[in-house]
Amino acid sequence: MSPAPLRVPPGPGIPEGLVVADADLVERFSRSPGPGGQSVNTSDSRVELELDLRTTRALTEEQRRRVLRRWPGGVIAVAASEHRSQLRNRAAARERLADLLRTALAPPPPPRRPTKPSRGSRERRLKAKKERGHLKAMRGRVTD
User: Fold this and answer.
1) 1 pLDDT exceeds 60?
2) Secondary structure (3-state) at 98
3) What is the pTM (predicted TM-score) of this model?
4) Where are the alpha helices (DSSP H) in the chain?
5) Mind listing the pLDDT tens digit for each residue in 90-138?
6) CA 66 from chain center: how many Å?
7) Please, what's the b/e burial string for 34-50 (b: 16 or more CB within 10 A of its CB; e: otherwise)?
8) Are 76 and 24 in contact (CB under 8 A)?
């Protein structure tokens, strides 16, 4: 039984969503031995999932460029190794990969506007110090 293709839900940068074919994914499974040395399905089943961004047919050229800027090596790899069954770790690895693809395809945040000097900036403090000195010098003088 082969798993269904990886579906990335719609979001910013991918309005229609994304479907990655199962043939594009490389899955590796390993089990740590259970008590007594025998392999048990429910003991820590590690699932590693890889996607080669350069060869997948799920991305358009523009999306591929955007994702490759984030991962210059061209391969996204995730792993799930919680203490649960291989099936649940496979689902967790697929969710993590889908989340990484969503964040990689999202447009960058808008640039922040430059701000004016803060209240505690050096220029403001020096200006206030000069004004206080001038007011102190003028105090007590009577001008006609």
Assistant:
1) no
2) helix
3) 0.64
4) 61-70, 86-105, 122-138
5) 888 999 999 988 888 888 888 887 776 666 678 888 888 888 887 777 7
6) 14
7) eeeeeeeeeebbbbbbb
8) no
